[in-house]
Structure formats: C-alpha cells, structure tokens
Hints:
About 30% of the residues lie in helices and about 15% in strands. By secondary structure, the chain is an alpha/beta fold. It folds into two domains: about 5-180 and about 300-320, Vaccinia Virus protein VP39 (Rossmann fold, 3-Layer(aba) Sandwich); about 185-295, DNA Methylase, Chain A, domain 2, CATH 3.90.120.10. Helix 1 (about 15-25) packs across helix 11.
Amino acid sequence: MVEERTVVDLFCGGGGSSSGYHQAGYRTVFAVDKAEHCVNTFNANFGEVSRQGDVSSLHSLDILREIGDSPFLLTASPPCEPYTAANEKRIRDPYLRMFDDPVGRLMIESIRLIADLRPRYFVIENVAGVLEGRNADLLAEEFARLGLDRPYFNVVHAEEWGVPSRRKRVIISNVDLRSPRLPYVTVGDALSDLPPPNDPHGFDDHYIVLPPPKHASKVSMTGFGQGLVYFKGAKKQYKNYMRLDPDKPAEVVMGLSKFIHPYEDRLLTIREHARLMSFPDDHVFLGTTDQKYDMVGEAVPPNLTLGIARAIESVESKVT
C-alpha cells in the first residue's frame, strides 16, 4: 500500500505552498493562519482543512486529534517581516529579531511543532535575513535541544525552479535541496496567453487596478526597470510601480508593491501577479483587492514547492 503524503501547513496564507505539493499528489490535512481572508482562500481551494488561529498557542495534540497520525510533511512559512531587509523598522540585532520579537519567535514555534509532530519531512521557508548573525547556529542548537538532527539551510532562487519572478529564500529542511536550474521563465512567457483585463469571459481577478491619481500621468514615461515610487528598506531602496522587462523574470513580487505592464500603460492585475508567482489559473483568491495582492506577494511560489516535492521523491526512491 502506498503511503499517503499528507501535509500540515502552518502559516498557510492563500495556499501557495500547498498548491505545489498538491500538484505533486500530496494532500493537506491541517492548515492554520491568523488572517481570516487567508483561511477562507485556502479552504476555497483545498477543502475545509484550514482554521484561523495563532501558531504560538497551537498545541500539537490539537493537530494530532484531527489528522490521526504524524504527517508525511510539515511546511511552515513564519512571517518574514522581522527578518526582511525590506522592513526598515526591523530590530537591528539578528538574535533579538528571533528570540525577543514575538513575531520573530514564530520561527521557534515552528520548530517546536516539528519536534512534537515528528513528520518524515519538514520545510520552513523564510527570507535570507533569517540567517544573519549567528542565527543559523542558534537555530541548529534549537533543533538539537528538541532531539532533532541539524537541518540543511538551503538557499534557493525561485527563478531557477520555474517561477517567473526572482525570489531568494532560505529553506530550512531535513532535505538537502539542489537547484534544478530550469530555464528562466520570462514575464513575456508568463503573461503571453492571458486575455485582456476586464474580459467577462476571462479569468477571475483579472481586472484593472488604477495607480494613485498623482502617479497615473507618469506611467507612460516609465521604462523597463524604472519605478514611480521608491521606498526605503533596512539596507536599500525598493521600487513600487516598476515597469517589468518582458525578456526577464520579474523582480520580487511583494504584497506592498505593484508592477506596470511591460507594454501597456497600466498596472498588472492580481491574476497577472499570480502568474508571476506560478499560481495555477484556477486558484481562487478571496478578500479585498489589497488583500488579494498581499496573499499573492507573500506566498511561497507553487512551482518551488512542486520542485521540493520532487526532491523528496528522489530521497524516498533512494531509501526504498
């Protein structure tokens, strides 16, 4: 009998992680997120398996009562705001970000649940900033304290995994991940077969969203790679309302910023953002327009977790 590949999805968001695993034949049996619109979105796509709640107060027995046994895979995407360089207000000391900031400590809560639930595989996703300072060693010590082996600290670039946008992330896992180095998917490739926005026979969430009036007149003067607005992060400036180059993968998709279409003087639609993150076209998003943009920009790209699932299959084949 083939073992069912069940998933527990912590900080599930709008379902980016689970989407990739489901494409590989996995099934999510428990998910949790603090935001109601994320829970509603997740359940609209994967069935009534997600609940609204705070991971820091979640007990492993609550999960086991629902799923019956340890999951095959536990995936977690704790909030990145305490760690990302795009957050100008993040705590300066890397140690304090993780152990003093209550949001940053959700990384430790993820490890606690991994130790309790003992999944065969685990995947914790976050920004590269989570490993600044001594934090990689500190995290390894936390794994050891809870009786777990030292994990792999995999640095991945989503564009090498078939995602049409750049995204550097750390995947903390008991799987050693090697990049498949797939050919880059460009913005032009990703958007080429979409119908015009506002087409009544087109896709959900494919409607035009206008930039603020004070920027609208400048859209036509914006060239590839240029932005209308610049905002300060912890280490550098970031662009908002950037015109994308059709011959390259998109820059990092973020919930707090939007892109200008390569050829048209308009912002990309939610569905076009979702394409740049490799969401399937039938993936449903529920909530306000801003909440939908945020869910897309804060997601784990499905093609990345699909690739991780294939890496796990490779490990499993060697074991059996």
